[in-house]
Specification:
Number of strands: 2
Order of helices and strands: HHEEHHHHHHHHHHHH
Largest sheet: 2 strands, antiparallel
Strand order of the largest sheet: 1-2
Structural class: mainly alpha
Distance between the termini: 32 Å
Helix content: over 70%
Shape: flat
Radius of gyration: 24 Å
Length: about 290
């Protein structure tokens, strides 16, 4: 068996199906998206080659750059929220009473679809009967906000359910990483007189720093291409106040039948994601990662 698995021909036969699927399902569609960006095409009729016109229009398109700024804001908000998730995970991993029940409660949003979450939060943000405004009225607020219809706060109103939606995912990752910290290390720190805060900041967090860097990258890239919940809740409105790059691409390609330009937006989104992935990797790169 060892001789068979060291045979290069056998290795190639095992890996070729996976490589073929990756090529067909990922790289060819990416290439086609870039190719369609060179076309004037409604998605059905005859394609007309127009060179770089779509990409030049994209660079000069203020709506695209505004939607890109909204996506960046969501990425910053999502990355900052990782600290909250990490804090909750530290508490859950400290074996407090009821931590198992709390962990299951935090995981509930992961079981719901984005459409169901959007419908739930639209009810909460309802300006007349929604729970959000009812709570504000209980505290004496008279001019309650019109959460999703006010261009000044619509984008940040959507950030709240987005953060809530992914809380369970990141808490689960941090919780699993913290549970893998060796008990011997914790016990040794306790014998040396370390208190729970010192153990958290000087033992646990350095040991899971690699996991934290991975979650930063997931949060940034995931936020840049986020689409479904935002589109269901506001459709990018009001007046483009909550438009993100993915929703703008969808509108151009499938609602305005401008498939060539929509493909150019999609390719631009891919390039921005690759740049942000590279930047995030560089900014979080460290030679001090702890191995155990």
């Amino acid at each position: 068996m060892k001789n068979v698995m060291s045979n290069k021909l056998v290795i190639a036969l095992y890996t070729l199906p996976a490589l073929f699927l990756v090529l067909v399902l990922i790289y060819i569609p990416i290439g086609l998206s870039g190719y369609y960006g060179f076309m004037d095409w409604d998605g059905i009729g005859e394609m007309k080659f127009i060179g770089l016109e779509n990409y030049i229009t994209l660079i000069q398109d203020n709506v695209f750059w505004t939607s890109a700024w909204h996506s960046f804001q969501l990425a910053i908000f999502s990355t900052a929220s990782l600290l909250l998730y990490l804090g909750i995970s530290l508490v859950l991993a400290s074996k407090i009473k009821g931590s198992d029940l709390l962990r299951k409660i935090y995981l509930i949003p992961m079981l719901l679809s984005s459409v169901a979450i959007a419908q739930l939060w639209m009810k909460i943000f309802d300006p007349t009967n929604g729970m959000a405004n009812k709570l504000l009225e209980m505290f004496g607020v008279e001019n309650t906000p019109i959460w999703l219809a006010d261009p000044k706060i619509a984008l940040f109103s959507i950030f709240i359910p987005v953060i809530w939606q992914f809380a369970g995912f990141y808490i689960l990752i941090y919780y699993a990483a913290l549970k893998n910290v060796p008990d011997e290390v914790i016990e040794a720190a306790k014998i040396d007189g370390a208190n729970p805060i010192q153990i958290a900041f000087k033992i646990k967090l350095p040991l899971i720093s690699g996991v934290f860097k991975v979650t930063i990258m997931l949060a940034v890239v995931g936020s840049l291409k986020y689409f479904d919940l935002i589109y269901v809740m506001t459709g990018g409105g009001p007046n483009g106040a909550s438009e993100v790059m993915a929703s703008y691409m969808y509108k151009e390609a499938f609602k305005l039948n401008n498939f060539g330009y929509g493909s150019a937006i999609g390719f631009g989104l891919l390039v921005i994601c690759l740049i942000m992935t590279w930047l995030t990797s560089k900014l979080t790169k460290s030679n001090d990662d702890v191995q155990f």
